[in-house]
């Protein structure tokens, strides 16, 4: 199949690589030195998003944020300007659910299909084709996208209509961020109260306090091993999407707001490029000034 | 062995029952109509905590809160007044770590051993002898307590010195409470943003957002099945222990403080006897007034 792939960052490069390795004709835009191996492997570099769209039955996006997706879709020489009749656009970026619904409406008005399919699982998941994928779109659009998503991910769920994939991703980031804060406050209190946090973590594994975060991020907190992983700065972007959605919906998310603020303080302090398990440092800095 | 057991509530009754069934001579205090079957099974009812202590090599407590433990240990006709030389006191209640260190010092000053061994796992864990137990005390005291704890629990961890069992339990309740709020804010946002929270929960299972809370309490939130389980009123008591410890240590636990407040609002609204998964109702009430 002829597939366009736009967004060759840390995540996009291995994802596009899997599509090339599967034998698809993959058209790429913005190929830099770091992604030359994709061309060596058979990918075809083109000069604009419009050229990629003109060449492709399916266009996949994996971009940093909402404005990037808007620019690539609807900017000058954008995807929308040269979209094939009956094409399928799959946006795998993590961006605003509200903007996504608008983008989907504009793309489907052109007679194309839309699927938003943000991922979790990070760089390792991208490299191992083991991403968790949350998809929004019509049944028909999802059915078209599924075989392509299966090249890049393992656990693929059709959540609902366009935008619902992004809603699920934001929800994921809320739960992950607040669970990290939960584990941080628990283990920090344990340490300050004189108990060995490693023993406490071990005792709690297997009970109701157990989580992927307690296992993985709890260990990072105890070892102070804060190399990312997933950076605090990126996680704040995602919680910002939750805060924006809450504002648009006029609802309150008290602990999401608190963690969003605490992430901001960590970034201001210079911890933005640390793994999000380093949120425990907020508590230490607050209590001790360092 | 001659074992005293004081505190025959929802948890204590089945726990004492396991000790009787194992063939120990179990001395009981405050036997009410609901616990008569323990006497039928071979338990021996006595008139005071002092009488229980006088008859027992090991005294087990399973009481509601810190003042109850203080009264039973050090009040009139309390355990301390008639403790055998070289006895072992095992406090399985969930109470203040700070008070526990003081109680342990007073008991060991009488030449007895002390173990604090609070549990998690709830009524089902108590009935099935499958409690998770977090113990504090000397190595020697823990070694004495272990065979008795093994009659009531499955996962038994020696955290550290006296009081550290209670620290671990408070830490457990912080992580559980804040993870419930994490799942509540995520699933509430999903629902308000128009996605099916059941599909979102399914998509997130297996990833970093996964937890025992997402599985069990997430499902209760979606089904609005709020029969306890573990009551919000009891959980607020436990977070109160965390808040008290944070105050004593002069440290800040921002999300613990927020959840403690939100639990208070839920209790004020009449939701205190609902399962703690009903914390999601705070968000609904805040947004809609009902």
Give the helix/strand class of chain A: alpha/beta
Identify the CATH homologous superfamily of the largest domain in chain A.
NAD(P)-binding Rossmann-like Domain
CATH class of the largest domain in chain A: Alpha Beta
* Total beta-strand segments of chain A: 9
Strand order of the largest sheet of chain A: 3-2-1-4-5-6
Low-confidence stretches of chain A: none
The name of the CATH topology of the largest domain in chain A is Rossmann fold
The greatest inter-chain interface is formed by: A-B, 71 and 71 residues
User: Rg of chain A, please?
Assistant: 20 Å
Number of helices of chain A: 13
What would a concise description of this structure say?
2 copies of one chain form a homodimer. By secondary structure, chain A is α/β, with parallel strands linked by helices.
Structural summary, described in words:
The structure is a homodimer of 290-residue chains. By secondary structure, chain A is an alpha/beta fold. The first copy, chain A, folds into two domains: 159 residues, Rossmann fold; 122 residues, N-(1-d-carboxylethyl)-l-norvaline Dehydrogenase, domain 2 (Orthogonal Bundle), CATH 1.10.1040.10. Chain A has 13 helices and nine strands. In chain A, strands 3-2-1-4-5-6 form a six-stranded parallel beta sheet, sandwiched between helices. In chain A, α1 links the parallel β1 and β2. In chain A, α8 packs across α11. Chain A is elongated, with a radius of gyration of 20 Å. The termini of chain A are far apart. The mean pLDDT of chain A is 97.
